Amino acid sequence: MTAVPDAPTGVPEDLPLMRGVELSDLEATTLLDQAIFGRDSYSYTVMRQFYDLYSRHFLVVDDGKDIQGYVLAGTAVDGRSCVLGLGITQDRRKRGLGRRLMLGVLDLLRADGVHTVRLSVAPENDTAIDLYKSLDFTTEGGLQKDYFGPGGDRYVMLRRL
Ligand SMILES: CC(C)(COP(=O)(O)OP(=O)(O)OC[C@H]1O[C@@H](n2cnc3c(N)ncnc32)[C@H](O)[C@@H]1OP(=O)(O)O)[C@@H](O)C(=O)NCCC(=O)NCCS
Asked: Counting atoms of ligand 1 from 1, which one is nearest the CA of 87?
């Protein structure tokens, strides 16, 4: 298990553990992703393949009973990374967990020499857009029509590490 040190942002001691994903977390993480993203969620098969490729940059929040959130970044050999997933279970939002996961994965990516992180976000997802802006991501260009196919418009946001 890889425990990830908290960023020095005054995170309260009583927050659940943020740690590196383990194989045994994948079922719960897939169910969490499906509950959040529905038809756009990842299957267990895809999660397993992400785990095989990107487990160094795949973190979960674990309260000792349940997985309450996860973040996952995929990195190319040229040092560009993409946030492939971020989600907090509905009843644990607005407690700083999403920010904590993002700070944690950005620290890991930086330590591994990643220089650029991109992500895509739905234009109506003000919560996530505000979070990313507060973490110094900036929007690249305007709204990208049909980024994820018909009706899947997205903003692409970028941060250099
Ligand atoms: C986006 C998400 C991960 C944020 O997680 P969270 O744990 O609730 O967020 P945090 O408590 O860490 O809040 C971080 C920041 O998000 C923004 N934020 C959080 N809740 C918000 C709300 N209701 N309205 C507007 N902004 C909000 C704020 O900028 C907040 O900063 P602050 O703590 O300085 O106020 C969570 O809402 C979620 O899982 N949403 C569904 C999945 C999703 O949209 N994932 C991102 C796909 S691109």
From this structure: 39
Position 10 in a domain: no
User: Residue written as tokens 């977390």?
Assistant: 25
Distance in Å, CA 96 to ligand 1 centroid: 8
* pLDDT tens-digit readout, 88-120: 999 999 999 999 999 999 999 999 999 999 999
Helix then strand then coil, % of the chain, to nearest 5: 35, 25, 35
Distance 97 CA to ligand 1 centre (A): 8
User: What CATH code is carried by the domain that includes residue 103?
Assistant: 3.40.630.30
For the chain, how many structural domains are there in total?
1
First to last CA, the chain: 25
The pTM of this model reads 0.91
What is the per-residue pLDDT across 149-159, written as a single tens digit (0 to 9) for each? 999 999 999 99
Angstrom distance (rounded) from CA 152 to CA 85:
16
Lining ligand 1 with CB less than 6 A are: 36, 86-88, 93-99, 121, 125-128, 130-131, 134
Closest residue to atom 41 of ligand 1, CA basis: 87
* CA distance linking residue 82 with residue 94, whole number of Å: 24
